[in-house]
Amino acid sequence: MSIKGLLFISIFAFCTVGALFLPQLGIYGYIADYCLNPADQWWGRPFANMGMRFSFTLALATMAGIVLQRKKLNFGEALLYKQETYLLFFLLLTWVLFLISPATVGRYGSTDHPVVKLTKIFIFTLMMTHVITDMKKLKGLFTVLASVSLLLGIKAWSVPYGQFARGRLEGIGGADFAEANFFAAFMAAMLPLIGILFLQSRGAVKLYYVVCGAFTANAVVLCRSRGAFLGLAMGALAACWYAPKRYKKKIYVLIFIGILGVAYLADDVFLERITTITTDQSEMDSSSSSRIRLWKAGLRMVSSHPLGIGPGNWYQTIGRYIPEYQGKDAHSTYVKCMAELGLIGIGVFFLLVLQAYLNLRQIHIRAQALPPSEEEEFTLFYFAIIVSGVILMTCALTITMIYTEILWVLLMLPVCLKRALDNHTKGQEATDAF
Q1: Does the N-terminal or the C-terminal CB of the chain have fewer CB atoms within 10 Å?
Q2: Residue 51's CB: how many other CB atoms inside 10 A?
Q3: What is the Cα 376 distance to its own chain's centre?
């Protein structure tokens, strides 16, 4: 057995057993498993062939840890915050539509139906928001995301050219985001989190996050994704707008260095794809024009079925509107959500996004009353989450991720930060009263 395999199974065992005593270890392990997909890697496949289900085992261990350590967990002001209530309503809506809509055929024989997958995602996400409830744990989660981004970035940098399809890097990310555009979106969304860890760290640790950022940015360029480029552009604008006063100059410098880095790494293929971004249909390439046709078809679906065609039913329905596109994806989170879950579904989704933003704004305002060092920490994490969210939500215009885990993990991070602030404030009040 390889050293890499032994290291993996040791970390897996540590997180699984540790989750019984420290549930956050189960959350960290689950996130790492989701991003790295060890079951499909040469160093993890032997254990998967033995019947080990890594994510399922970690989820069960985390659940058991939550039960065993329930008296030590602090859920903040309420068991369910408003954003979590909206999340559960969204899940209920998908199940109702699943039960009343035509059966899904010919698509999910070997994988979970989207409504089942979404249920599993939401169970984990709610465990995360009830376990990651202080700044130390949240920083640990950011560190895990930065570290898996580094590992994925190194893998992207080292793969042979034969793994590129039409000049684009494919098959690197986790099972949910191995496709080039989605992988690029994930890596792009990690850059603000890595940037904030860099600003907070010192010495050799700061150098570590420089390396994380460099390999992550390089992977984005290798994917040659126009959607990720637009996401980063919007993220840069958001970073300039929301940058904390004390860190404005440093953040501007990081953005400038990032632009120089992308310019240095960019090749002719990358530049050629970026220059094809246009709203003029006469100048679009076949990929862009096909997406416009798909989006228009999605709007016609909504017009015909305002309550939605049902979760998972896009692939069997699109052929009625564009016969030659039978089985083709929507290439847009918003269009697919609106088509499958109807006007109510897209409305609840936007309500979730709005509530995430409102939570972050409330955190930013409340943090101003904290002592300088504590205010700075909450403000930086607020900044990182909001910029990362802008990047991912922009990428969602051209990538379908409504039933994928990373979308909901990032969308619910504001709840973790809000609980961390509530618990911090509560702890301060208890100390002052004592």
Answers
A1: C
A2: 6
A3: 24
**CA proximity to 418, closest of 63, 130, 145, 123:** 130
Q: What is the pLDDT of residues 78-88, one digit of tens each?
A: 999 999 999 99
315 part of a folded domain = no
> What does the block give as tokens for 409?
């993990």
Q: What's the mean per-residue pLDDT of the chain?
A: 90
* Residue range of the domain that includes 187: 80-277+330-433
Give the CB-side neighbour count of residue 263, counting CA atoms within 13 A.
6
The dihedral over CA atoms of 157, 161, 165, 166, expressed in degrees to the nearest 10, equals: 110
Co-location of 216 and 342 in the same domain: yes
- Residues 109-168: tens digit of each pLDDT: 668 899 999 999 999 999 999 999 999 999 999 999 999 999 999 999 988 776 666 667
In the predicted structure, residue 284 carries a pLDDT above the cut 50? no
Residue 368 belongs to a domain = yes
Cβ(311)–Cβ(97) below 8 Å = yes
CA distance 410 to 210: 22
Domain shared by 134 and 112, yes or no? yes
C-alpha distances in angstroms, 96 versus 151, 258, 293, 302? 40, 45, 29, 17
Instruction: Mark which of 41, 73, 105 sits at the end of a domain.
Output: 73
Does residue 91 sit in the same domain as residue 173?
Answer: yes
Q: Are residues 103 and 46 in the same domain?
A: no
CB atoms within 10 A of CB 42: 10
- The answer to whether residue 298 sits within a structural domain is no
